[in-house]
Amino acid sequence: MSTAAAKPISNTRSDTGIPTAKLITWWVIASEIVVFGGLLVVYIMHRLGHPEWAASAAHTNTWAGAFNTFVLLTSSLCAVLAHQAADAHDGPRAAKLLRFTALGGLIFLVVKGLEWTADIREGFVLSSGGFWSFYYTLAGLHGLHVLAGMIIMLIVAADAAKNQELQRVECIGLYWHFVDIVWIFLFPLLYIAR
Amino acid sequence: MLERYLTAASSYAHSIDQLFLLIAVIVGFWLVLAEAVFIWFVFKYREKDGRATRHITGEEPELHRWITIPHVLVILCDIVIIIPAIMLWYNIKQATPPIDRTVRVIGQQWAWSFQEPGPDGVLDTADDIRTVGELHVTVNTTYRFELMSRDVLHSFAVPAFRLKQDALPGRTITGWFRPNRLGTYDIQCTQMCGIGHGLMAGRVIVETQQAHAAWLMLNSTPPGTGQPAPSAPTAQGATVAEVRR
Amino acid sequence: MTTEVHNEVQTESHVHHPNYVKIWAILVALLVVSVVGSMSGVRVVILIAAFGVALVKAFLVAKNFMHITVEKRFIPYLFLICLAFMVILFAGVAPDVMKHEGLRWSNDAAKHAVQTGMQAAPPKHE
Amino acid sequence: MSTQVQHAEPGVFKKYFWSTDHKIIAMQYLFTGMAMGLIGGYLAYVFRMQLGFPNQSVPGFGIVTPGKYNAVVTMHGSIMIFWVAMPVLIAAFGNFLIPLMIGCDDMAFPRINRLSYQVFLLSALLLLSSFLVKGGAFGGAWTSYPPLSANGAYNLTPIGATLWLLAVALEFVAFLLGGINFTVTVMNSRAPGMKMFDIPFVIWMIVLASVVFMASVGPLIAGAVMLLFDQTMSTGFYDPNRGGDPLLWQHLFWFFGHPEVYVVLLPAMGIVAEIIAVFARKKLFGYKTILYTAWSVGVLSFVVWAHHQFVAGIDPRMANIFSITTLLISIPIAEMVFLYIATLYGGSIRLTTAMLFALAFVAEFMIGGVTGIFLGASGVDIYLHDTYFVIAHFHYTFVPIAIISVFAGIYFWFPKMFGRMMNETLGKIHFWGTVIPFNFIFIPLFMTGAAGDQRRVYSYAQFAEQARPALQHLRTTATVSLLVMLAFQFVFIFNFIWSLRNGKRAGANPWRSTTLEWTVPSPPPHGNFAELPTVYRGPYEYGWPGRADDYWPQDVPD
Fold first, then answer.
1. Domain check: are B144 and B29 in the same one?
2. Measured between beta carbons, which residues in chain A are less than 8 angstroms from residue D190?
3. D395-417: string of b/e by CB count within 10 Å (b at 16+)?
4. Is the Cβ–Cβ distance between B167 and B104 less than 8 Å?
5. Same domain for B214 and B173
6. CB D192 within 8 A of CB D529
7. What's the pLDDT tens digit per position in B164-222?
8. Residue D426 clears pLDDT 70, i.e. is over it
9. Which of B106, C99, D375, D413 has the fewest CB atoms within 10 Å around its CB?
10. pLDDT band at residue C122, thresholds of 50, 70 and 90?
11. Average pLDDT of B65-87?
């Protein structure tokens, strides 16, 4: 999507005062809120209805979760700094910071991979009980968003390095902060509450 | 009004029919009125040369009145409908009249099986009568039913009783009915339950005290015989019983 | 026209940047708090450490990193409406799914699962 | 059409299949939707034949076994809602009308728009492919309630069930992409001077529908993932014996499923509003009031979902709340209809085919609306739930929405789409041949429903009360009427194709309408407007006193 084709005029108008790219990002985030929101609502009501799941929840690795939270928070910092750089029309710096952010995402996914391998070694798989089904589904859905975010971020970074499409830096940043916020809630729900 | 289409054979069937009639009258009035005005407008304001159209925004108070007045009336009609509707719902699905006898209704792919408490009137005792596809009840007796499913969703529906309740696997859902008319009536499954959905029929036989007593005597055998034939997949079949322990 | 709009909006929305690194430091501190809190056996402390802190962190990120407070009003409202719908969903579904018993119904299977589960492994913090 | 064009040489392929032009994408959606509509109609023919003339070999299909019957009804429902109503009403008309009516050259994100259609096409092909797989197409009803849908041992169509789920999920993705694009375009890309209340009503409705869809579908997407895992990875999200709950899916499905009804209703209302205004030569009666009622419908639609589940095993106390909200939503809908009728008042009504269809929408939709009251009243719903009364009710809403209003829209915008007029005589034949049989299909079904006919049953032979000859006559009547209605659709198809080549050439503004799409040549060139217009007034300024013309286009300065 990053090939700089001739944009329609409709894309360059801004009746709301919000640039089009930013506006669609907000709407995408809104639609993601209800996807994650729905899944979380369902998980929470099951968790409240099934106290016995706490036993399974006790097996999750709080330290891995905490470290991943730290990683995401840091990558969010990089993202917002990249946005700052883009505002200052410093494309290369923005690109560098975006790549750092994507690196954070990579670390996050690696840690999650190791964590899951350990869980599966212990015999906890997707189908071994209610808690684990939700654990893998929630974290997996979030992980997919991290992955997607990374890919888009690298594409945006490639453009930004050439000082092109700098407005996209802020958009992908917003999306990344949203993914971060989702994790901020997943962390206590999956790792702490027991 | 509904009796014209199907006999009413339970204590609350008639009140459902009455509510149906009430709603039919109210909404029928509105429908006829609206359609009449609509057609009249289409005819009266058809294109005629020499008559220009009028520029009306609809904000003019003297015109907008014609929207707000029916608007308020609709609200009133809604209230007139909702109150009896909820009262009826309360009487059928929430309030429980004094129960004379309890039967268990079990849905499975693709048959209804029933557990009658037998002469001692207590479920899960040796003299229970298990039947498949046939429920024997006594007229003018208030029955409590325990509804369960062995596999997928089913819906226990007796149109003549105006009775309908879904059966969910893993759950026991109770309700009541009071047959007040002798005869044999259909039992349907009204929830899609697989390829046999259209074959999942049963009969409820409303009989007199004496007839029912005779039937009890005849069939009250130790359990084991008359067990409902388990239908594929049987794996889930056990769970209901297991959960009951 | 477009570029004007861009600049206009962007400057307008970032007149003064918060110190992002400071915000980040606060977030990390809160993270530590929640982890430490979760180690304490007390249920109330855990819940506050877990979810109270999570709310604060989410707010900080939304405010300072996403600049949602200086964005056009209807954006935060849009998100709040979406969240409100989720609350409605919870309110409508919980009576059937979260509860295992209600008026004229009882979820025997779920009760059974809870029962056996609790016998198998009584959770620590119950 | 697009699917055929794929095989043509790259030039044509790029023009008609890979294009990012909103008009081409609209045509892709329109023709795909119409093709799916033909399939849906054929399926209706199959199961109506089985019901009307039980257990006889259906010409063009064969013997309808119970399993095939379930698959056919399931696919009919899914296709008509997700692959006909949605793509034609929202995507096709939305894509075609939004940029033209708000006065810009294209969607804000043309490539996302193209992607949206491609995902949609993929979902359609995925669904159709399920007819060919082992076990056949999914037969667990369009609501796909678990455990039946979750367990191949129960539904006996393991592959079909998964394909159905994937297809629906992809379709949701397609409409999320499209809907968000629509919303952003209308919010940001309007012509200078077009304020909130200068936006044509149909555009408002399409955007509102997109937003309602976006906000309601999320939980179901999550739920679909869970169901997919239940089907393929042996999780137990909906399995009561493993800590799951079958009721959960019903809640997630209807939390989306009921707003979905309004997602397709509102654009239909919008199309009808445009046409009534033009051919009655009248400003919409209380434009703002209609808008407010539409908004309140959109909001209320989120709090009524469980009225689909009154007897589904939800806590009976909850039913009371949802019964009240359900009757509440009847108020704004009723007011909308009143306002449409009031728009006719004082007008000068020209009964073109488009207008006839638009008026028929209002007349028929009223019947669908009032019969909904029976079902919203929880007490009566105990008896009517899952009977043919329900089927007749929602077909009295969905046929006006997905068929009648769509025909109205096509007859109305055909000149703009293809530069030629459709034949009015054939159009009127098609109109009467569609609307009259339609009533004779579903009025008998109201009766069989009142007599207790339950849904999704391939034969009533097992049920003494339902097997009465009187009821069978009603079913046969419905079937015969359907055959008549389907036969008359060929008149439309002929008219459509014939008019493409031989129709009378249409000028830029054949209906003497005020909105912006009529200010450009028919068909509009790439980029739509030679110079982008400026808007000076609301969309429905007809019959201004003291003006030569009885209409005053939006882009003409005073």
1. no
2. 13, 15
3. bbbbbbbbbbbbbbbbbbbbbbb
4. no
5. yes
6. no
7. 999 999 999 999 999 999 999 999 999 999 999 999 999 999 999 999 999 998 887 65
8. yes
9. C99
10. low
11. 93
Q: What angle do CA C65, C70, C76 make, to 5 degrees?
A: 85
Dist CA D390 CA D466 (whole Å): 16
Res B221: pLDDT: 63
Residue D312 is assigned to a structural domain of this protein:
yes
CATH number for the domain spanning D52: value is 1.20.210.10
D vs B contact (3+ beta-carbon pairs below 8 A): yes
Cis check: omega of the bond before D523, within 30 degrees of 0: yes
Give the neighbor-by-neighbor strand order of the sheet with B163-167: B134-138, B202-207, B183-189, B154-158, B163-167
Does D2 have pLDDT greater than 70? no
Predicted pLDDT at C16? 64
DSSP character for C49? Answer: I
pLDDT digits (tens, 9 = 90+) for A110-145: 999 999 999 999 999 998 888 999 999 999 999 999
pLDDT above 70 coverage of chain C, percent: 83
DSSP β-ladder status, B163-167 and B154-158? antiparallel
Tokens of D277: 């205004």
Q: Kindly report the average pLDDT of chain D as a whole number.
A: 94
**Whether the Cβ atoms of residue B130 and residue B112 lie closer than 8 Å to each other:** no
pLDDT tens for D510-531 read 999 999 999 999 999 988 999 9
Which residue, D309, D332, D333, is CA-closest to D321?
A: D309
Q: Do D379 and B88 touch (CB under 8 A)?
A: yes
Residue length, chain A? 194
**CA torsion D36→D40→D41→D45, rounded to 10°?**
150
Q: Is residue A3 part of a domain?
A: no
Its pTM surpasses 0.90: yes
Q: Average of pLDDT values for D523-540?
A: 92
DSSP summary character for residue B108: E
Domain housing D335: 2-519
Q: Token pair for residue D40?
A: 């849906």
Nearest to C109 among B96, B174, B243 (CB): B243
Q: Is the pLDDT of residue D477 over 80?
A: yes
Q: Check A30 against C78: CB less than 8 A apart.
A: yes
Q: Does D347 touch chain B (CB under 8 A)?
A: yes
SS3 content of chain B, % helix, strand, coil (to 5): 40, 25, 35
Quick check: A150 and A144 in contact, CB under 8 A?
no
The CATH code of the domain that includes A58 is: 1.20.120.80
Q: Which residues have C-beta within 8 Å of that of residue D427, sequence separation ≥ 6?
A: D352, D353, D411, D495
- Helix (H) / strand (E) containing B111: strand B111-116
Q: Report the residue of C6, C73, C93, C105 to disrupt the D interface, i.e. the one with the largest count of D CBs within 10 Å.
A: C93
Closest CA to D248 of C82, A31, C99: C99
Exposure letters B212-243 (e unless 16+ CB within 10 A, then b): beebbeebbeeeeeeebeeeeeeebbebbeeb
Share of chain D above pLDDT 70, in %: 98
Q: Is A21 on the interface with C (CB under 8 A)?
A: no
Q: Which subunits sit against B, judged by 3+ Cβ pairs under 8 A?
A: C, D
Average pLDDT over residues D419-426: 96
The answer on B120 and B232 residing in a single domain is: yes
Q: Is the ipTM of this complex over 0.85?
A: yes
Q: Which residues of D touch A53 (CB under 8 A)?
A: 243
Same structural domain, B142 and B176 = yes
> Rounded to an integer, what distance in angstroms lies between the CA atom of residue D214 and that of residue A105?
27
Q: Who among A18, A50, A189 is closest to C9 (CB)? A: A18
